[in-house]
Amino acid sequence: MSTSPATDDLYHELALTLLPGIGPQLTRQLMSYGSSAKNVFLLPPGKLRRIPGVGEATIKILTGPERGKALAHAETSLRKAEKDGVQILFYTSKQFPSRLKLIPDAPVLLYYQGPADLNAPKTLALVGTRQATEYGREQTERLLKGVLPHQPLIISGLAYGIDIMAHRAALQEGLATVGVMATGLDIIYPAAHRKTAEKMRETGGLLTEFPFGTQPDRYNFPQRNRIIAGLADGTVVIEAAAKGGALITAELALSYDRDVLAVPGPLGAPSSEGCNALIKANKAALYQEPQDLEQLLNWDAALHLPGKFQPAPSYSADDFTSEEFALVSVLATAPSRELHMDELAWKAQQPIHAVASLLLGLEFRGVVRALPGKKFGLL
């Protein structure tokens, strides 16, 4: 395939993800040893055997007939992506959603179509039952009107019920909204939502980890839900039955240390059993009005920021404990001197629970400031 260097890299990155039996974790492992996807395809069996987690079955896939099939599939997919205006984002790309990189089971490649910024300053997922009621529709519309001043990116799953209500209400309010799909981008499911999906392509976007042609197989939907949870600063469950995909998304968000809110519903109403149970179990904060969400995500403070932070003063290690100074040092070298708490903990090599406590102390001392989406900036 005759391509530019950048396209050549993407060609091999895409092909690597199309190999059978090689999932995200093994892909990252191979990339760490090969330094590029192209190099991975060029590694001889002897070198592949030295990579932890690579066995004879994987070597056979990387060097046998499946290798050629994946490369041919990648070439076809790149041409289709170019024709349809689809971005293919490998996890090493600057355009890959930074929030998604922080979750342990993140995909390594995404297909994206639309103008919305996947790294928007504020992101919010709205999820719920497919059997939504009029109450659910009213609460969805009310919530989106309430968050208009923040202009968040609204994320949902394009499904029946609360999902499509959220997308349509966001479009009505002029908010960018992204639908995370359990199919390839060329297969809109359900087909009844095609018109809404087309509008979303114009002002928001459609996103999936599944290759072109992927059908809406049952097991794709729980997998899709982790992307919804991973993209969002917070997840709001509008209506949910006692069991269902919305609760799976909420549990995933909690496991990623993201905030979850739930709209309470009438006692005994099947469509609100899941929401009420989340609140009762202290797994979700009670959502009654936009201020509940603003305070939890620290969006209320962001509305009143005077502007970008002024250049940070010089800090001395003598003024801090070693753990505190490690956090200050990492923030001082970060873009715009701000980072998500999870990334800050990882870069400082400190446990997340300890970092949360340290940041609180630094915030009280006027050294750092909390920002929307569990980010912290150096003052």
UniProtKB/TrEMBL annotation:
Residues 88-295 form the Smf/DprA SLOG domain. SUPFAM superfamilies: MCP/YpsA-like, RuvA domain 2-like. Pfam families: DNA_processg_A, WHD_DprA. Residues 321-374 form the DprA winged helix domain. InterPro entries: DprA, DprA_WH, DrpA_SLOG, RuvA_2-like, WH-like_DNA-bd_sf. Belongs to the DprA/Smf family. This is DNA-processing protein DprA. It comes from Hymenobacter ginsengisoli.
